[in-house]
Amino acid sequence: MKIIHINYSSDNSGASIAVKRINNMLNINHFQSEILVYSKNSNNKDIKSIKKKNILIDYTKANFHKIFKKILKIFFRINFKYSVNFNLFPSNLSSRINNLNSEIINLHWLGNEMISLSDIGKIKKKIVWTMHDMWPYTCFENYIDENDFFEKYSLNKKKNSFLMEFFLKRKKKYFKNIKYIICTSEWQKKMCENSYIFSKVKIEKINLPLDFNKWKPLDKITTRRSLKINNDDIVFSFMLPHRYAAHRKGLDFIVRALSKIKMKKITLITTNCESIKFGNVNHLNFNNINLFEDRLKILSASDIYLMPSRLESFGQGLLEAQACNNLGITFKNTGSADIISNEQTGYLANFLDDEDFYNGISWCIDNLSITKKNMIRKLSMEKFSYLSINKAYVKLFKQI
Fold first, then answer.
1. pTM beyond cutoff 0.90
2. Are the C-beta atoms of residues 168 and 86 closer than 8 Å to each other?
């Protein structure tokens, strides 16, 4: 069986990393799997470009997005809390997709005007769509606070503005060919099942996989020495993909919680953050950490991974940290809650609860002995290895 994955980019964004891992897993397990992207910015020969290069069209699309966003902000008074995508710009990708030699098309992240809503509706192949954020079932938001989602985009939604109803009705119309949805977490599945757009679509929950043969912890003493961290420090890590994600990823919860810690010998490693001043916490920040080797070094040097996201579809950073035998802390009612076994491999704090997030930090500090037994990595492998996740894909593909 041949599966072709369609994604916007081949970069190091969360969705792109996930697509590469799924593709690698399927190929290892005797499927024929390929990746096609709209924007190829890597030398990976296994990833191919689905579009014809046209600098003028790319420039026009980028400016259309910026201008349209400003129009909505000025004339419709829409305040964009998180990033958005409109997918209104005419495209002709459906004809190219329909001519591909594959049994299944697996759609992934389709933002940045790569394909229009109407063109998605013209795809005639068997389609599986993997959810990497909330955009497919919202108006145009990649993420939206849960209360707002249920008010605006659920089966029991209130009447929206003309503009929002326009987008919703277009999606409802053009997504009729979507028969199967893959949700990467229980939270994502709950959102899809309650959505106005996908309420009648077959929805499966399949977590994202990780190659544990590749993600093996390096020696902690050696990695700490290379990062100039004292070996007897308790080391926390928190990885931001980019600075404008700080609010959604919950950096403010970390600042408030770690500011309460009175004990010495605490180090916080972050990526793509501004400098943070704590009383007793040594803060190390690294920008533009994209290489696998650098991420592995940081996580191998760490004890506890912090993921207090307000909204999270899955949370691959937390899974990578568990592969490196880190305890983790995240909130309930987020996608990353799937990854942690509460008070076994970390702590699940009550949703957006500052005090309970601090309790989670205290619990992890008191239970660091768990990491010495490699139990975190072992339990994580049982749930998220290529072998385990591939079984769910085999079951789904047999249905299709």
1. yes
2. no
